Amino acid sequence: MSGSIPFYQKHHLHYDRGYRSKETEATLSQYQSSSSRYSASRSASATSRSASATSRSRGLKLSSHSGLDESRLSPVTKRAKPTYLALDKENQIIGYVVPIFRGSQEFATGLSDTEEKRVRDTAAYMARRDLFTSGLEMERSEQTSRRETMRESAERISLSKRIHEHGEHFKRMNEDSLMHAPNFVIKPRSHTVWENQCVRLHCTVSGWPDPRVVWYKNNVTIDPLAHPGKFKLQSSYNVHSLEINRCDFDDTAQYRVSAMNSKGELSAFASVVVKRFKGEIDESLPAPRHGPVSEYGITFKTHIVDTFGVSFGREGETMSLGCTVIIYPHLHRYQPEVQWYRDHVLLTESKWSHMHWSGDRATLTLTHLNKEDEGLYTLRVTTKSGYETYSAYVFVRDSDAEVEGAPGAPLDVCCLDANKDYIIVSWKQPAVDGGESILGYFVDRCEVGTNHWCQCNDTPIKFARFPVTGLVEGRSYIFRVRAVNKSGMSHPSRVSEPVAAMDPADRARMRGTSAPWTGQIIVTEEEPAEGIVPGRPRELQVTEATKNYVVLSWKPPGEKGLEGVMYYVEKCVSGSDSWQRVNTEIPVRSPRFALFDLAEGKSYNFRVRCCNSAGVGEPSDPTEATTVGDKLDIPSAPSKVVPTRNTDTSVVVSWEASHDAKELVGYYIEASLVGSNVWEPCNNKPVNATRFICHGLMTEETYVLRVRAVNAAGLSQFSEESEPVKVKAAIGGGIPHASPTPPYGISVLECVRDAMVLAWKQPTFIGGADITGYFVDYREVIDGVPGKWHEANIKSVSERAYRVTDLKENKKYQFQVRAANMAGVGIPSLPSDTFLCEEWTIAVPGPPYDLEIREVRSDSLVLLWRAPVYQGRDPVNGFYIDIKEADAPEEAWRGVNTKATEKTFFKIKNLKEAETYVFRVRAQNKAGVGKTSEVTDPVHAVTKPGTTEIVVDVDDDGVISLNFECSDLNADSKFVWSKNYEEITDSTRMTMETKGNMSKAIFNTPGEEDIGIYSCFVTHTDGVSASYTLSEEELKKLLEISHDHKFPIIPLKSELAVELMEKGRVRFWLQAEKISANGKVDYVFNDNLLSQGEKYKMHFDKDTGVIEMIMECLNPEDEGTFTFQLQDGKAKNQSSLVLIGDVFKQLQKESEFQRKEWFRKQGPHFIEYLSYEVTPECCVVLKCKVGNMKKETVALWYKDGRELKADEHLSFAEGVLTLEIAQISKKDAGIYEVVLKDDRGKDTSTLNLTDQGFKDLMNLVFSVIANSSTPLKITSTDEGIRLYTFVNYYNDLLQVTWHYKDSAIAFSDRVKSGVVGEQLWLQITEPTEKDMGKYAIEFHDGKDGLKRTVDLSGKAFDDAFAEFQRLKAAAIAERNRARVAGGLPDVVTIQEGKALNLTCNISGDPVPEVTWLKNDREITSDEHIILKFESGKFASFTITAVNTSDSGKYSILVKNKYGTESGDFTVSVFIPEELGGKKK
Questions:
Q1: Distances (CA, A) of 383 to 152, 292, 566, 663, 1177
Q2: Long-range pairs of 580-583 with CB within 8 A, sequence gap ≥ 24
Q3: Which of 680, 756, 916, 993 has the most crowded CB, counting CB atoms within 10 A?
Q4: Residue 993, class by beta-carbon neighbours within 10 Å (0-12 exposed, 13-18 middle, 19+ buried)?
Q5: Considering only CA atoms, which of 540, 506, 541 is closest in space to residue 524?
Q6: Distances from the Cα of 1219 to the Cαs of 662, 1039, 1133, 1237, 1261, in angstroms?
Q7: What are the CA-CA distances from residue 881 to residues 746, 893, 903, 981 (Å)?
Q8: In a 3-state reduction of DSSP, which class is residue 1348?
Q9: What 3-state DSSP class applies to 1373?
Q10: Is residue 1236 a contact partner of residue 1166, using CB atoms and an 8 Å limit?
Q11: Contact 1290/1318 with Cβ under 8 angstroms?
Q12: Residue 1243: is it exposed, middle or buried by C-beta count within 10 angstroms (0-12/13-18/19+)?
């Protein structure tokens, strides 16, 4: 059976031995053996005192203690502890009532004076006195009865405050320990007094043995003999006081009282502030100071010599650090303030560290080294004239393990949370795991005053945090932790500070007790309101959750003055509504509670109820579901470990912090000789920085280093190993780093009534190491006489700006600044100008500051600055930059930018090469432009040899990076990358890598948020820097290149395309730019691989890169996606063509058409199908082009199915068939068809000239007609003015519109339009001036049409109108002139003897005169010839019987005032032959 028990449960008894000296162990052993003889008497005494306490506690409902023999636990017996219990209706305890606490010393001691007197008279007390207080007064005077009465009254008040818990609570007893550490029952109180008043600080201290009490002023021991009459120390009955007489400003300080005995040391603090009435300054007294000043005309100079160096120790050893301090001038009994710091934390006297000042040497002794003692130790010696410091590192290695391969001891064991039934212990993991992974940790506890260690957990726990339960309320405990791996157990850690297991509310009350001798009753709580049930607790939340416990915290209900509020905590499994009370028996008093025994992996909800004697209140709002388990992840490994040379035995190592690490404790560094693969820790205490100096290395050896991070969850993986580094002194011949030169250019950025914000410039030489901070001193200037320097800041500031506070309004001050680096603090700067401390009230901003020059080139540079601290009345909204040549006068300042820039950087261009410039910056707000900044140092505009720029690179994996190379690096140089000139600290967007003299900024996931200006600055160089602007266009290009590199592709000259070949075959093809002989292609259709066959013909020409696949035709099942997949080594590519829906149908239709076309063209066929054209003469010609004709081929024309004959203007010439339609009209509309046929086949072409087809044809005809129209012209008629144009051909279907002044003309009797032949006209009858304007005729052709215009105004109108008037007059004359209208023949042949009667129409106005002529001679009317003119219209000519003499030429002449007209006719008289013969 024993073999199955883990070794760490077999052999761990030796760990019960603590770090005690042999003398102390022997003394305790002697006392324990002697005290056992008095146990019987102690038991009897305890019984009697319990009865006495019961009788005094009238009216209290008490429960007796049982199950525990108190006499076995303590030499001093305990009294019963009464309480008020709150009961519900069923007599169940639901809480208790706490009366107002009035303060008592007994609260701390637990004994009344009478009891204390009796106890001190016992044999046990005598034994303790002999052991620890030999030489002291053996007896004390008897107490007066009045004092005893007062003490008993205080005892009753204290007893009423004590509370019995129910059940198991009464079994837990707080035994008095044999010895206990000092405890301040009453702490000293801070005071503010007037000058020359007295002040008294007092405290009450308990502890056994009686503690030794020492008072300190600003951590310097107060010696009353060194200041006679100033300080008075008194001690009586454990009450200690410090009295300060006639306080002055020098007495303003922090006072500390330290109580120490063999069990430990405890300190309490109080501040004394001495005030002075304004206007009552005594000039004979020293001026008030806010820091160390010179007094009485003495200036001290301090030098620290004979210093300690970097030290190495081992756990368990004792180490002393010492320095000799020389203070000049040497004054007898002058005591400087000597302070020791570890990692910038002030050290105090304790059992682990002792400090001693001999008058000229300061010594710090570390009595028992542990890894907690590792760190940077600093000695600070402060005099009234200033201070000096010295620092060196102390390394503590693990002690030898008792079992080979066992891990190192854990460290920094402390208590995170303490309550009455649990204490949460935390620690840090060791750096050394012994070569095997640490399995976990064991936590041990020990009750204070005993030497018995108990192991708290049965199995190792890996999480560096553990809740210890099973504690006795009121008792104090210390803890230690051990680590375990497969090889064995580590040494135990250093024990924690003692912590009491009690309710935090009780602990708070103990800290707030009042002084019993004052006779005052201090009410620390409001008078409780009885009978009121408390409300809901507020803001319940889970503050910590691990797999072992969950910690809840909340705020009390909002109501004040409630009676004794306590809390019940309830839980339920998430998803259910079954609430279970966790603390069923005893409610808790503090608003914080830890829950244990929860099932790991389950989710819970929690809520809290308040309760008091009036009842239980409503529950709080439940928490969100909380899953039980360790929420803290092990941190990620650090990265980019960079070592640099430092000294002959050390190197400086820096690294990049772990990403997204939570609750990071620090880092461990390990070093290994190259090739040995043996790793040794460089530090045994985690460091919080990302830079560390590894000491103790061997000179001239080469090392590699690695780093890992640690938090409570565990240790991370190691980082990658660094580059090898050789241990030798850094560049500079082994000379160690020097302190920086003084800063300069001190200026004021803002001033209020009692403070000033200063800025200064970085030292010109930083000493070869980075500046770690600055120290500011100030002094008052009175009437031009400067005073003494005072420290403005004790802790260095990293920024080059600092707010100096506690100044006096309207006083003048000077300032000086010192810079510090790892080599020390440099000498101070020259005193600044004298500045008046008065509040700025100007509306405009203060000056910008911290101007910096970057990226100096021959023609440009970049100026950086910081916004003003003083904003003015409104926020700053822009900046202006001024420039001038360095040697130019002040008037030469000129602006660089005319428009204010909102950024705090600006690239200044167009500089003259080799010219030296200076710059300054001004800020503006709505009120105007503010003060100018300090002027920069002169800058020489020259591009230095070897200057490089940032290069953008995309590697084979597609990673985009910015690369910057610097050839001027030294050992301390660093590459600092910035975006928009703000240092990049967030590694989520970019990752920085530096190797040698090359730094690379890698974009993690490039995107639009990365657009900006990227710059790189190299520290410890002569301003080496460069920038690169990543624009949106550049980012797109880089992303394309990155994608091509990340996913290499075979470039294509053309993507997959489809085309139709003859006979309707379908060809899919693409062409690659370059492909090797090893390239291959997969042909895929709808994710199915195709292969060569009858349907698919594939061909791949690797010389030309042409890849094709041919299909004879497309069938419906061929609808889908065709893909060619190419692969040539690593490079791949593919191209797809989607043939679905209308696209596929169109291609299929075209393929089928092409197939039919091929067969069609095997016989006579149409090369160009039937179409039409319109000639300029407006003739319509139907034509088609034919091919593959032969003699036997017949071409037939049809219209509407009727064959057209040859007389229809058919023609055939040069393979073109035509049909001409001369004057097209509606009757020509129809369907025209041409048929070609012979023995090889038949082809048909059809042209539809009906409806829309005919309309389109006519529109084309109309367009030709319109284009043939002549310009619009003006002519005049006797009726008015006519506008006209001619066309080549007019068609009745032509539509035209006449416009006047861009509006269509509404025709009337006065304005008409018409067509005469090929003339189109617009007639304006009787025109007037209103008809003047612009006229147009618009031809409509179904599209845009054509418009001809003419301007009928001005001279054109005048000329036309004049011509109209003329023609009108002529027309009137023509119309009214005499005229022979008709009726007369040209020749009249008449037989002799016949009667001749001719009548003609005569017109004219006035009625014309009629005259008849024969052979041009006038004739008159007679019987033979009768002449008549009737009605003014009709003229008649009558010959009653004609004879031959009547033959001749006759004329009628009509005449009026408008003109004359004649009508002629010839009369021929013939004699018939019969009659002629007879006559003969």
A1: 51, 7, 53, 40, 122
A2: none
A3: 756
A4: middle
A5: 506
A6: 95, 65, 57, 18, 16
A7: 20, 10, 11, 17
A8: strand
A9: helix
A10: yes
A11: yes
A12: buried
Q: Which residue has the tokens 């002169």?
A: 938
Q: 771: which 2 tokens? A: 């500046």
Contact indicator for 352, 365 with CB cutoff of 8 Å: no
Cα 1401 from Cα 1383, distance rounded (Å): 6
pTM for the full predicted model: 0.39
Q: For residue range 341-358, list pLDDT tens digits in order.
A: 998 889 999 888 999 988
Q: What is the mean pLDDT of residues 875-903?
A: 93
Please check whether residue 1269 is in contact with residue 1263, taking contact to mean a CB–CB distance below 8 angstroms: no
Distances (CA, A) of 36 to 41, 48, 78, 262, 403: 10, 20, 17, 22, 38
- In this structure, which long-range contacts are made by residues 1475-1480, counting pairs with CB atoms below 8 Å and at least 24 apart in sequence? 1475/1392
Check residue 489 and report its DSSP letter: B
What is d(CA 677, CA 639) in angstroms, rounded to the nearest whole number?
20
Q: What is the pLDDT at residue 37?
A: 42
Would you say residue 277 has pLDDT above 70? no
The DSSP annotation for 1046-1086 comes to HS-B--EEEEEEEEE-GGG-EEEEEEES---TT-EEEEEET
Backbone angles phi, psi at 514, to 5 degrees: -105, 170
Q: Which residue has the tokens 């038949």?
A: 1242
Q: For residue 1194, what are the contacts with CB-CB under 8 A and spacing of at least 6?
A: 1235, 1236, 1237, 1238
Q: Could you identify the residue written with the tokens 């005993």?
A: 450
Distance CA 205, CA 213 (A): 9
Which candidate, 1438, 1459, 1440, 1432, places its Cα nearest to that of 1450? Answer: 1438
Selection from 251, 153, 242 nearest residue 194 by Cα: 251
Question: Which is nearest to 1066 in space by CA: 1115, 1108, 1113?
Answer: 1113
Asked if residues 1339 and 1294 have their Cβ atoms less than 8 Å apart, the reply is yes
Token readout for 639 is 């990265």
Beta bridge partners of 613: none
Kindly give the pairing relationship between strand 301-305 and strand 345-346: unpaired
3-state DSSP assignment of residue 517: helix
Which residues are paired to 929 by β-bridges?
924
Q: Is residue 447 predicted with pLDDT exceeding 70?
A: yes
Token couple for 1464: 């002629």
CA distance 323 to 363: 7
Helix and strand counts by DSSP (H, E) for the chain: 13, 101
- Tell me the three state secondary structure of residue 1118: helix
Q: How far apart are CA 69 and CA 72, in angstroms?
A: 6
Residues with Cβ < 8 Å from 33, sequence gap 6 or more?
none
For residue 521, the model assigns a pLDDT of 35
Residues 551 and 465: beta-carbon distance below 8 Å: no
| H-run or E-run covering 1454 | strand 1448-1456
Taking Cα atoms as reference points, which of 265, 186, 206 lies closest to residue 498? Answer: 265
Residues 637, 719 contacting (CB under 8 angstroms) = yes
Does the pLDDT value for residue 826 go beyond 80? yes
In angstroms, the CA 48 to CA 775 distance is 67
Using alpha carbons only, give the angle 137, 138, 141 rounded to the nearest 5 degrees: 80
Residue pair 394/313 in contact (Cβ under 8 Å)? The answer is yes
Question: What one-letter code names the amino acid at 879?
Answer: F
pLDDT on residue 175 = 40
Q: From the CB of residue 907, how many other CB atoms can be counted at a distance below 10 Å?
A: 14
Question: How many angstroms separate the CA atoms of 1365 and 388, rounded?
Answer: 125
Backbone φ/ψ region at 854: left (φ over 0), alpha (ψ -120 to 50), beta: beta
Cα distances (Å, whole numbers) of residue 1155 to 425, 490, 1062, 1063: 91, 93, 7, 4
The count of other CB atoms within 10 Å of the CB of residue 1127 is: 16
Query: Are 390 and 340 contacting, i.e. CB atoms less than 8 angstroms apart?
Result: no
The DSSP symbol for 687 reads: B
> Strand runs (DSSP E) across 1148-1263, as ranges?
1165-1174, 1180-1187, 1194-1199, 1202-1203, 1210-1213, 1216-1221, 1230-1238, 1241-1249
